[in-house]
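Fold this complex.
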Amino acid sequence: MDQVGWLVAEATQIAVSKTGLTSRTYILMAVIFATLGVASVTSIMLQRGERWTIESAALKRFNHRLRIWWIMFAILAFGFLLHRLGVVFLFGLVSFWALREFITMTPTRRGDHRTLFWVFFIFTPLQYILIGLGNSPPQWLAQGRIIDFYGFYSIMIPVYASLFIPARIAISGDNKRFLERSAKIQAGLLICVYMLSYAPALLDLELQTSNRMAWNGSPVTVLLFMILIAQLADVFQNAWSRLAGKNVIAKDINASRTWEGVLGSMITTGLCGMALSWATPFSWWEAGVMSMVVSIMAFAGGMTLSAIKRDRGVKDTGTLVQGHAGLLDRIDNVCFAAPVFYHLTRFYFSAE
Amino acid sequence: MNLLQWIDPKKLTGHAIVLLARLFSGFTVRWVDCQPETCQRIYFANHTSHLDAVVLWAALPRHLRAITRPVAAADYWSKGWFRRYLAQSFNALLIDRQEIKVHHSPIDLMIREIGDVYSLIVFPEGGRTSGEEMGEFKSGLYYLGKKRPDLELVPVYIDNVNRVLPRGEFLPVPLLTCITIGPPIFLESGEPKADFLSRARSAVQALKADEG
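Structure:
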């Protein structure tokens, strides 16, 4: 028995040292865990006592979100134990599922079938393989050269896949709504795969503070920070729109998003980011600015997905095919925030 | 005994087929005014893809799957050992579409095969349609209902499977699909064939409208 315990301890030790998790990561995860816990307890209490007259529909939506956040948290926590490649792989699966929801939602024709096969089984895995190779490809591939695959994965989909898709559709010989169909598939691949893949790409950066001092934390914490802030931005936008919302931005796209919500969310998310700056290489004001940027991008993502859904006449990607979680609804903010966050971090807070 | 059942390669292939169908078609099953019960039934559905029979079969709960046989075209499913083996694994009832004779009609074969245990999955449109518009129903369903009035005729609408694997393609694209199973209908006494068939067809179509 004792030996088993020792082995487990040893294995955890190795896993931890390999992922480069630091105490910062654990503290940040504990904070998220506590927040989710408090939210869950509150929601259970609200369901029990009906003294508060809260619309049950809103509570139901909140519960649904909460469940998805727990799942996301569990997946991330599990992924972190699996080294960088584990996280890349998990994000690959998320991309695959999101793309599945996206393409299911947008009608394609029979002529698009082979193109879709390429998109699902060639481009999506390839993008994540390139991210996985990152700046330290194995010896047999690099052969003594120093290769950073950033140069390839940052253009593979926007250039090569974008050229391939219309050409492949043209070869299939169906000319009906040709441009529209290629644009749909390109947009799906860009949003669900390319944009999201910048999130695990963060793990490849050698982070430092803005005054070029080495930072001893792990990039995992920064990834966690980005996802947390993006989710918070969504919550705050909802809350502010409910509390102080007056000027709806675009009624035909989304009737519940207001300018007050966007502004309120920017400020509160910024404050939250400042409070969490200890987890990142950013100073307090830099963390605030980064959070504000993430908040704006989360808003942009939400609006874009709303527009796509309205165009198709569905309310949630989850109700499109009943019973599915509507993953795309929860990660549209991360999809839009990830590339901007990545590039800002790369330019200002990384050694490369 | 139990162990032997697990080792049975056809059973294992059956489980693998269910798993693959679930992964590739990501189906959701909705029972609308209908419960998954073990009484003898004829599930009739729209037909747009080779995967339809497999997906619908896989979508049933396990205890129903064991007693439900999809009716499939013999000319497709008995070509080559692999397809034949697959068809056996999901317990398909193969019907020869080319050689239909009066005293050897597929309806009699189906009724003989199901006995008083099995349920069937049939596609009354005959062949696969493009997926946009449902074809007219062939009369087989009517004769099934006439010869065995005790069978529950259950309409099923299969959505999006034609996008997973359209006609003439062999590589599936894993989109999300939805299977809606509706309330059973019965052949009224003295109901004309054409009336019944159009009623059955609109029962399937109603499930399409029900969606969303």
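The interface with chain B takes residues 100-101, 103-104, 108, 110, 113-114, 116-117, 120, 313-314, 319-324 of chain A (CB under 8 Å).
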